[in-house]
Structures are given as structure tokens and as C-alpha cells.
User: Fold these one by one.
Assistant:
Number 1:
Amino acid sequence: MADLFLSPVLVVIVDNRALRIWLSKLKEVDYEAETLLLLFSVDSLPNVKYADKVKEILHALEMAADEGLRFNLNKGNIVHRESDGRLETSSFFLDREVFGREREKVEIVKLLLSSETTTIGGEAQCIPIVGMGGLGKTTLAQLAYNDHEVRRHFDFQVWVFVSDQFDVKNIMRTVIHSLSKDNSHYPTLDTLYLEVRGVLQNKRYLIVLDDVWTENPDDWDKLRPLFTAGIDGSKMLITARSKKVALLANSPNSMYCLKELSKDACWSLFVQRAFPQGDKENHPDLLPIGEQIVSKCGGVALAIKALGSLLKPKRSVREWEIIRDSELWNLDESEN
């Protein structure tokens, strides 16, 4: 946030004491805002528990902006960032950034390769990976999807990023294009159903639906052709935060509930993000603070990755202590 426009200012030696004080205040508010955004990123939905803190931070930013006007800073240095919502995922990942999910990967792969074929009614078995936001459901799905044995087992594999916009037609088109490279429009569900059945017929397939939010039974009913088109052994792997999604997918018995990362895995992930290779030993004063920060993350991989990346360019003990001592941690703990 503030780093994006403070850097050009800080390269100049600041002799003005008032300006130095203002920059220090602004940095502290910036860290509070960054931490709040991290909590938003791992909550299912930002809720009322953050309302007062949001107002407090907005007020502090407004006060800092008003105070900063008297320094005549160049607005051209400010960089505006816009968010397009949730980041689209894919089947590709960096293996070196994954820690502590070896056992879970083995268990998911075993389910995908199991001899259990179809559910009642002849539908492909659905395996939902369920857990709170930020635990690493997508990462676990990527690990299983790219496993060598899994790739050998299935005739076709398709990865579909779903998110909160559950668009049945778009899901169908993605499957068709991935398997046949067909970019036809297919204006109706009927034409999509026929084409899906055609490309999946007599094939053992694995389809991943990543980040599914819908709890509307009608949405799942429209998606049924994906479950019934292939041969025995076809599988659907779904990642979702809600257990209700598993029930709607007719898969209460195969639901895989993902737990938090272990303490050792959390620390390894944080070190990988916060310290360039070999740099950890150069900052022994930061390590105990980092351990305290990691312990506050509750085993949530996304929070650890984000905080590690945030702290990577910061080598001041004070900067790390601001994150560790933020009141926002207490706010989240009181809710839990």
C-alpha cells in the first residue's frame, strides 16, 4: 500500500523532522491496513467484527492525508491499484512453495485412484476438499492433479476455476475447449449437454472444480451431465469452504476436511517467503519475532505466505514488531 508511493520520497535524505514523524505515522497505519486485508483474505466473508477497525483505519488515513498536504508531495508518485476480485487459479504450481501436505496428497491421490467408481445413479464419484479459506485446498488439489500416477490413470483431466460466479455454461465450455479445442458458442444448455457427452463418452476423466461457493441445488442439477458422461472410474474433485457444497454434490461420505498446517510446516513456509535463500542467518534478531507472527496465523497457509511476502523487504525490528503487535490479531482471536 503506502510502500508504493513512499519509496520515491524516502530515497531523498529527509531533514525535516515533521516530515519524518508524518512518514512514520503513515507507515504504522499502512501496516495495520495490510494486516486487516490479510484477515479479510482468509475469512469466508468480511463481517461486522471488523467494522470499527475499518472505520478507525480509514479515519487515520484521512488524517494522515490531510496532514501530508502541507508537505507538497508530488501526487504523481502515487500508484493506484485496482482489484479484479478473486484471483483465477490453474493446475500449475511451484512445488518448492508447498510445505507440510505430503500425507494429505497421498490420501487424495488414493481416493482418485480407488476402485470405487460411481455413486448411486451412475454418477462419477465426487471428492470435495473442504476447509476454511487460506488453508491450501487449491494447493492440495494441484498436488493431486499433477501426480504422475493420476496423470497415467485418467484419459482426460480438466481444471476449471469456478469462484463465487457459478456459471454452468462457462464451466461446460471450459471442459469442451480443454478436451477438443472447440471455441464454438453453444447458445443453449441443450447444445452444451450434447457436446459434453460427446467429448467425455467412453473416457475416464478427472474434472477439478476449484473454489466452489454455490449452495443452490438448481446450479448442481444443471451440472449433472458432467457427472454422468464418462465411464467407471471418472472422478470430480471439488474445493470449497462450505460442507453444504459436499452434500449438494451427493458426496457426504467422500468429503475430505483439510486441517491447519503443522507448526514446522508453517515456519518453513514463512522462512521461504520472508528470507531470500541464505539470508535468514543474517537476521537473528528477526527470527523470534517471525516465530511469534507465525504462531498467530493459526496454521493458515495463505496468511503465512502473505505476511512472509510483506515482511521480505523489511529488515527493521520495529517494522516486524508493528505486525506482531497489531491489535487486529486480538480482534480475530476474540472472534475465534
Number 2:
Amino acid sequence: MIKIPMTSNFKRIIAILSASILLGGCAYNAVNEEPQMPEDKKLVIYTSHKANIYEPIIKEFEERSGIWVKVVTGGTNEILSKVSEEGSADADIMFGGGVDSLEVYKECFEPYVTSQEANLDSTYSSPEHAYTVFSKLPIVFIYNEKLVIQAGKPRTWAELLASSWKGKIAFADPNQSGSSYTALVTLIQATEAVYGDEEVIRKFVKNLDGDIYGGSGDIIDAVASGKKSIGVTLEETALKQMGKKADMGIVYPVDGTTTVPDGCAIFKDAPHKDNAKLFMEFIVGDDVQHLLEEELYRKSVRKDFKQSIDVKEIEYDLNYAIANREKILSLWDELAGEQ
């Protein structure tokens, strides 16, 4: 079992990094100058996480391990499609990206089983151990408390298809937003007993009334400003903004929601493979997983942790989501173009 000695305090690291971001700077640069260090003390991480997630974790890893980390940022599909086409070059590890995306590109990864495997939620684990789950990300509804009374807020997925919400829903383009694609598939799964998948997409796109957003941040702003009454987004995104947006409420659907995790994977031919394994062990360990729950608005993937909020889960049909992605997005584009 690989261990990294504890030498610092995560909350202190977060406070320092948060202050630097507020001042317009960044304590850890995505493109950082490479110091003169031996190769066995280096690690190259490709990540689709936002800085507030990867910075404190990587900074702490550096302090504890003595390993210098180079960070390359980008969108999940942007990074993985490039690696798939051109090779991983100097890349050691992919940190971030939904497991549905990691599964599509699993041929790019070196199988690895962490020492914490028995303690991790295996619902969405890779049968080939191509990736390791990192954090769970529930999909939730948000609503503007000035525009929607408590009794009138949507409580089930099927309610999003009701004509009364036409033009009042904030939702991001599933071609651009991985979480919106997950939400769309969750909507299909939750209503499949009543509607077929094509009918669900048709009804939902009609309800959006031609107003589709670019990303999850836009959804929060649209609901908080009152431009839209309700929205569909990640719990993490909603909770981060709840204190800043006084008139915004959150709903966990009573019929359940998906909590599809993101993950981490070691690239084949990684030049610093041992250090990549060390980082993988670090992020599924107690300290980082507690950090997710206590500071970063995410849910741990560890089964031995008590969850902060008990969420009724729908098991996301990963095989369906992958096999039907092109069909779903093609129909989406066709219908959205007609609005």
C-alpha cells in the first residue's frame, strides 16, 4: 500500500488559494515553469477540473510527496480526443471527467487497482480498472424563491415536461455540458415508464422554448436573476452559489436522481507512472475524500463515509448513455434548431 506522510493542513491551503484567486492571482498556475528536478520527482496531470478543485489537492500532494506537478487544463472531451488521436506525449494522468467519458476512451489508459478499492463505491467502477472513481455528482433542480412558491416547486423529473414550465427552465446544451447530457439521460430514465426516449426529448426541448444555455454557470445566473424560474444542474454548482444567491432554493427529486462520479485514470506509456499511482492513491484516501465533503461541495465515493445529505439514487444506465449518445444529441440538435 502506498502512503504519503501528512505534513500540512488542507484548510490552510484552501484559505491561501482562495485569497489569491480573490485578489486576481493564482497560487498554482495551469502552465507553470518547470524547475530543475530529477525525472522521478515529476508528474504531469491533465485535468478538466476547475481550479478550485485541483489547486488545493495538487498543492497538498506536492507538499506531502516532494513531487513537482505540471498541470495542463482543458475540457474532458477536448483532452481525451486529442490524446486518442495524437498519443499522450508527456501526460501521466487524467484527473477529472465523467466516468461515461472515461469509459469511451478507456483504451488510452493503463489499468490500475488502488489499495482503497474495497472501500470505494463500485456502482460505476471500470470492469477493466481503466479508471478510478473520485467524487459523486448528484443532479438537482434549482428554483427562484421569489418566482416559485414552496408548494409549486418541481419535485419529480416528469414535472419538467409539464407545459406550465414552458419557457421557464434553464438548461445547458448537452453537446457542450457533460452534466447536462447526464441530466438529459436521467430525465429519459426517470420517465421511461410513461414516454419513450424520443418523446421525452421532444417534450423537453419544446419546454425550453428555444432558450438553451452554454454552461452550468449560466443556469445559476438565469435562475438567480429571475430570467428563468427553475433550472437543472449539478448539486456542487448549486451549493457553491446558494450563499451568494439569496433567492435560490434546491430540490432533490423525490423519485431519485443520478450521482454519476467523475474519475481519474493513468495514461498508457506515462513517463512518471509510479508518481501517477501515488497521486491516484492520494485522491481516494481519507484526507482528500473528507475535503470533498467538507469544503468542495462534492460527495465522497468512499463507502465507509457518512454522506452529508442522504440522496435517493437512480442508477445511471452508463451503457445506454454511451451507446445512444450520437442518436440523442442528433435529435436534440434537430429539435433545438426548429425552436
Number 3:
Amino acid sequence: MSDKSVLVTGATGFVGSAVIRKLAAEGCLVPVAGCRRSASVPAGVEQAVTPSLGPEADWRGALQGVEAVVHAAARVHVMDEPETDPLEAFRRVNVEGTLRLARQAVILQNTDDQAALIRSGGLRDEKAVMIRGSGVDLAQMPFRDEVPGVPIVAFAARLLQQKGVEEFVAAARKLRERGISARFWLIGDPDPGNPYSITAEQVEAWAAEGMVEVMGHRSDVPELYAQAHVVSLPSYYGEGLPKTLIEGAACGRPIVTTDHPGCRDAIEDGVTGLLVPIRDAGALADALQRLIENPEERRAMGRAGREFAEREFAIEKVVDAHMAVYRRLLSSRRVGMDI
């Protein structure tokens, strides 16, 4: 791949930065593009600025002399913004904007997004490549055996309504009413100014009620997962593939999440965890109770989750999968194929 020019967007993100390093090591020219210049881009890397990531973006300058594009940029939090039509705002950038940039090949993180883009008519089925998630550094998320004690269920995310935090607390309340012995951790903070954020007062009220233990924002999530017994994210948010779930699986913890785009791609239902309907605290409580009361099944799912993470989510494999797509694109251009 030496002497080839590969444009990278989202270059400061987890996948984008890893791809830049890999491409540069192979001798590629790696210009980057985005809505603003970044000081974290490696020295010597050419940066192009586009005013928008939406369907009106003009990428012609950035694409001059480029033989392939790695499009890793997105508006992942646009669903939280106080837009008149937040879903339309999400689609403008992450669907229409992506289609404008590149119809040659699209890499998606979950099967629902893949199907939606194919149905839109902008992509043929053979041109849509699905790579699960943005990967996880398994060395930073080691597998550890469960610690003895009262089972702990961990929820780690921004405290937004769509992340299912209210359902998580309601499930904890139901389990307490059933006499189930367990602890429930809320790892994360409210998002002030976000219209869908749980308020600090509500979090304090839950803590005072004894429903949950409020851990706040933490940088030692692997250590917390090592102490926990189950990881849960009952989200109905517009997820790509929730990193907190693949991190939980990597740490060897069974997952309880929703049968929702992105979330369901993070587990193998009945093998590495359990799926429940969205906004259903009762079903969530039932699934959590099953794992709390059945330690052998819980541990077996945790071991299977680690194997699943090693097979599907290792950052090295995710980057290699991206690189295989880019090599195919460059090879196809050399022989003049329609890609």
C-alpha cells in the first residue's frame, strides 16, 4: 500500500487514530479531514477542513489525489440535542452525509444500520461492509474471576433517559421488593444542559432511597467491572455499538441489554447475556434476577463473553478488518474495477 493516499475522517477518534498509525507505518500518505483542525493529529499530517459533515458538505478539495476514504467521523450525540426533529438531524449527518462522501464502500457497526442504508437505495448490498463496533483494547480490559460477595450489577453511561437509567433504577426497586439481595451501581454523571439528562437532584433522591449506589464519573471502569457480577445497559438510545457493553464482555461479565439496534449486536442472546424489550423494567428485573440467582450460568456467560470479545471486538482485529477493506479498494482502483 506504500505511496497510496488514504483520506481519514474522525482521525482523533479511537478507530481513526489507530488507522492513521497503521497506514503511516505501511508508507501511505494519510491526509485527514474534519470540521475543524486538531492539535492531536500527528505532526506532518495534512489537514483539510470542511464546514459540515452533512449532505451539503463539499469534499472535493480534501478528495483530490485520494485513492480511498476511511470515514470514521459522525455526530454520535446529535440525538441528545434540542433539535425540532432530532431524528432528521441525526440522519442528515450520519446517513445523507455519509452517502455524499462515499458510495464506493461503507463500513457500519451494526446490522440494523447496514440494512437501513441498503434499503435507502444509496448502496448495493455487496458494497455495505459491516464491522462490529470500534473495538476494545483487551490488554486494558483483562478477564478476572468473580469476587465473592453480594452480586453487583453495574450500569456505566451518561445518565440520560434514553440510556435506560430510569428503567435500571425501577428494576432495582422491583428486585428489592422481591427480596433479592444485590447491589446496583450507577457509573456516570448527568449531562447538564442536555434536555434528556437525569437531574442531579433525581440521582441524589435515588441514592437517598437506597436503590442505587452512585459512583459518578470514573476512569477506572475495568476495575469496577472486575468487582461487578453483571453489566447492564437497558438503552433505547441511537447506538452504533455501545462500547460499555463490549468492555463488560471483555472483562468476562454477562450482559443484560435491550433488543435494540446496536445493543443486540453487542451480545449473543442466551450465550453471553440476555436481551430484554426496551422501556420494560419488569423484563429487565426478571433477566437480572435470573443471573443474580444462578451464579454458574452467570459465570458461563461471562466466559463466553470474553471469548466473544476476543473473536469480534479486539482492536487489532477491528483495525485489520478496516485495512482489508481499504486494500481491496486500492487494489480494485489499480485494475480499473467497478467497486
Number 4:
Amino acid sequence: MKFNKFYLIPFFVLFTSTIIGQAPWERVTPSPQEHSINDICKIPGTDKLIAVGEGSTVMISENDGVNWDIYLNPTGEDNGYNCKGVHFINENTGFIYGGKETILKTMDGGKNWVLTFNGNSNASWEYINEIEFVNETTGFAITNDGQILKSTDTGESWENIESGASFDLNVLEFADTENGLIFSYGDEYLKTTDGGESWSIENLPASISGLYFKDVYFTSSSSGIAIGSKYIQESTEGFIYKTDDGGITWTEVFHDENGWYWPVAIDFANENQGMVSCNTIMYGCINYVTYNGGDTWEETPMFWFSIDPCRALHYEEDKAIIAGNMGMIAYSENDGENW
């Protein structure tokens, strides 16, 4: 027994000191890509798609999402940086928004990025939640703590404008260049009718009250779709709403009364044809397609690839791409019938 104790102690000291003394691991190849993907968009004027996600990840595809080039750590952000979303205004100029209340800008189609705004350099959980441009020079961004940021120089600089809001701002959508809406996690929302020069605090109509907004998409200046969930009698139930008057009133067009499906992403190929992706209680993904501007929705087959597979959706005509947890990307060429 003494013999064993004598050798065990030096071995333990040697083993732990060797590990402590080692340099941290450094990634030498970008793939396979296992970080969760938060957002996908098409780069205007091109056939390229760009996706962003956790782990400081940027991905670009030049063939409809079949293959991807991976670019890690834009502007030198560390691996803990979360790219929450991406927005492009033309084939060259785009923005990534995310943790630490940061906005990154590219002027070469997404290959190189510079930091243009950093509102909270210490808190990775404080986010820019969304960016929307009404034209190529004027854009708006929203934050967790009720701030609205405005840029009038194509995102080179951002200034805080008065909103009057003391609540989190979650979803930003402009129906046209003058009329915009910002939704929170509660029953109050912000509205502008002058292109963002001024904002008023409004209360949601009773029909949509209590909705936890995930996304809003306007297909015209009057018609839009809102998706999200409500907590009803100890159950979280998914909803889709439609407006035909610019967001003044909303009509329920889908309700999962069983509490099995929760809409998380929406995209439209044109004014009539759109898709909503839902995560399910069984950790799968199910999709709904509309061919009449959101008046009715048809269910497509469910698939399982990973836990909560859907965070982002891109949809055009019959092609759809869903991306989400652990870097999962699913591709369909027939409106989600097969993946």
C-alpha cells in the first residue's frame, strides 16, 4: 500500500501540472461547423445566401445553400460572440447584429467586416435584436433595453433616438418607407408613420394580446403576418396572425390548440406564397405553406434532424432552407414535402 501511495502522488502532480501548463486549443479548420445558426438571408442582386450564428460564425453559399464557405470570427470577435442576425441592403453592403449590442458592417459581400457600433462592451447577453433599412442610407436597430438606434449614413454611425419605451424591443418591421412597427414581449408596441422620425407607444388589440412575437413579415404596405406563441392554461400554443390594414387589427389564421408546435421563422417567396417553420414538442420541425397571402396554411411533413432544428428559414418559390441547432441545415426542392 505504501508503494502505491508513493507513486500516485507524484503522478497526479505531474499530470495536472502538464494540463494546466498547456496552451488553449486553437481551431485549425472551419468545418465541420457545429455552431447553431440564427439567421439566413439572400444577398440582393446575387444568387448568394449568407447565414450567421453562435460561435462567431459566418457562412456564405453560392449555389442555393448546397455548399457553404465558412468565415469565423468577423472583426476578430472571439468564439463566444453570438451573431444573432444578418441584413443586407445591396450586393455588397450588409450588417451582422448580435451580442454586446454590436453592429458589424461589410462592404464586400460578407467576406470582411468592421465594427460600427458597440453599445455594451462587457455584457454578451445584451443584444441588438434586429436591423431594418428603409432605403440604402437610413436604417434602424433595436435593443433589449428599449433603445432605438438610427443611422443616416449607411450604417457607418448610429445614434440613440427617443422612443419613450422602457421595455425590451424584440421585432422590427417596416411595411413601407414610412410605416414601421416594433414589438416587445408584452402588449405594448411602437409605431411610426413618418419613416422613423417619431414613435408612439400603442397597445395591442385584444385579438393578438398576449402573443410572444417571434417574427413579423409584411408582403405589402397593408398585408402582414405575425407569428409567435401564447401561454394558455399551462400550455404554450403556437399562433399565426394576419393584418390587412398595416397592423391596426389582426386576425387569427392558425392556432395549435394542442400546444405541440411553436412558430419560430417566416419567409415569403412573393406576396402570395410563404412558409412558416415551427419547432415541435417532440424536438422536430414542421412547416406550414400558404399560397394565398397567409389567409390559409397547409401542413407539410415533419422531420427530425436535431433537437429544436429550426431557428432560421429562407424560402423562394419551391425551394426552402431551414437551419438551426448545432449547425443543422435542411434543404427542400418541393415546398417542404421532402428534406
